Amino acid sequence: MESISGEPPTNQFLLILTIIKTTLTTADIATALVCGIIIILFIAASAIISSSENAFFSLTKLQVEELTDGQSRVAKTSEYLLSYPKKLLATILIANTFVNIAIVMVSSFMFDVLFDFGSNHVIGLILELTLITFTLVLLGEVMPKIYASQNNIKVSKFIAVPMYSLNKLFTPFVYLLIKSTSVIDKRITKKGHVLSVDELSHAIDITSTEEETSQQEKTILKSIVNFGNINVKQIMRQRPDLSAVDATIDFKELLHKINDWGYSRVPVYRDNLDNIIGVLYIKDLLPHINKDDNFNWLSLIRKPYFVPESKKIDDLLKDFQLKRVHVAIVVDEFGGTSGMATMEDILEEIFGEINDEFDEDEISHSRINETTYVFEAKMLINDLCRFMEIDPDTFEEVRNEADTVGGMLLELSGDLPSLGDKIEYKDFTFIVEAADKRKVKRVKVIVNKLKEEAE
C-alpha cells in the first residue's frame, strides 16, 4: 500500500535515519549531554519567569496586602515590584526573551552535533523549529502559567527576590522598553475615538427598549452620563433661598428658627451672607437643648467648606467622601456667597427628587397635560429639563449665566417680563403667570411641537 504521495512510508523513515549521525565521538556525546542539561535549565528558567507574570498580575487586593505585609526581604521586594507594574512587566518580557534566545542557540548547536542534514536544510529547520516551539510553549508558557494562576501567592513569594535582581540587572533595557512603549501609547491615545456625552446618551436610547429598561432607569443612566459635565452652580440652593442664622442671635431665638426650618445643617454668618463663619449641625445642639439663653452656641459650629461655582459635582462628591462633610458653601469669583450645595443635591441629579419625612410638600412644578407645565421661576433649569424629560442642553444657547427659569426668561426677553407676557423660544412658549416689580414668580411652559401633534 502506497502513501498519498505515491512514495512508500519506509522511505520517509529512512530519510530521518539518514540525518542522524552514526559516528558520534565521545566529545560529541558529552557536548550534546551538556547542551541538553543547559536547555533543561533554561526551559525551567523560562517557566519560572513566565509564571511570575500570571502570579503577580492575578493577585487580588487582599492577596497583595498579605504578600507585602511585614519587613521581610520578600515583602519589601514584592511591594517594590507591584508599585511599578510597567517595570515588572518589562523585566519579565526582557528576561524571557533572553532565555528563549539562549534556548534556541544552544538547541541549534546540539542539533548540529547530533544530526547531519546535508542538503536537507529545510527539513532540519522545520524539525528544529517544531521541537523547540512545542517544548517552549508547553513547558515554558502554558503549564507554568496555569500553575501560577492557581498558586499566585506561592509563586510570587518564590520569584520576588530573583525578579527584583533581574529588574536591577536589566535596568537600561527596562528603561528603553518603557520609554518606547510610552511613545506608542501616546500616539494610539491621540488617534483613539473618544465618545461624547451625546453619543453615550444616544447609545442608551437605542439599546434600552421599553421591555428591558423602564423610563426611570433610562433617565438615571443618562444622568450618570451627564454627571461629570454639571457644575455646582447648576445644582446649588440659590442665595435668596438660603436659610442661615446670624452669629449674634441668642440661643432661644436660634432654637426657634431651627424648629421652624426643619433643616439638619444651617450656615452661620456674621454681618452678612458673604461672611459665612461656619455650619451648625443640629445634632451637636441636642445635648445642650435645655441650656439657658446665654449659652455660647457658636462654640458648636464647624468649619465651613467653600467651593467655587465652576467646580464639577463629581469632584465635589469625591471631596464630600474624603472630608466626610455633606455641605459646601458656594462662592463666586469675588468670594461672595452664591448659595449652598449638599450631598442630597448631588444625588438628586442622578435619582431625581429625594424627599424625607421632614420635607414639606412644596409644589415647585406641576404638569397640567401632555404639552403644558407650570414651574416656579426659582426652579433650576436642570430640574426643569429633567421634569419635562428633555435634553439638559436644550436651553444652553440662551441661558448664558442664568441657572433658574426666571433668570433664563430675563436673558430671553432682555428686560423684566410682566404678568401675562409670552416669550417664544424654539418649540417652547413661556407665559408669565405671576410676577411683581422685582422678579418673575411663576411660569407656564407649553411645548408647541407636542401641542400641534395632539391637535
Which structural traits does this protein have?
455 residues; CBS-domain; 18 helices; 14% strand; elongated
Question: Could you explain the architecture of this structure?
Answer:
The chain is an alpha+beta fold. It has four domains: 9-190, no CATH class; 193-229; 232-351, CBS-domain (Roll), CATH 3.10.580; 365-454, Uridine Diphospho-n-acetylenolpyruvylglucosamine Reductase, domain 3 (2-Layer Sandwich), CATH 3.30.465.10. It is 54% helix and 14% strand. It has 18 helices and twelve strands. It has helices at 9-19, 26-57, 61-68, 73-83, 85-114, 121-150, 152-169, 171-191, 197-207, 215-226, 251-261, 282-285, 313-323, 343-351, 381-388, 396-399, 405-413, 448-454, and strands at residues 237-238, 245-246, 265-270, 272-281, 306-308, 327-331, 337-342, 365-367, 372-376, 422-425, 428-435, 440-447. The strands form three sheets. Strands 8-9-12-11-10 form a five-stranded antiparallel beta sheet. α2 packs parallel to α6. The longest helix has 32 residues, at 26-57. Residues 1-10 have low confidence and may be disordered.
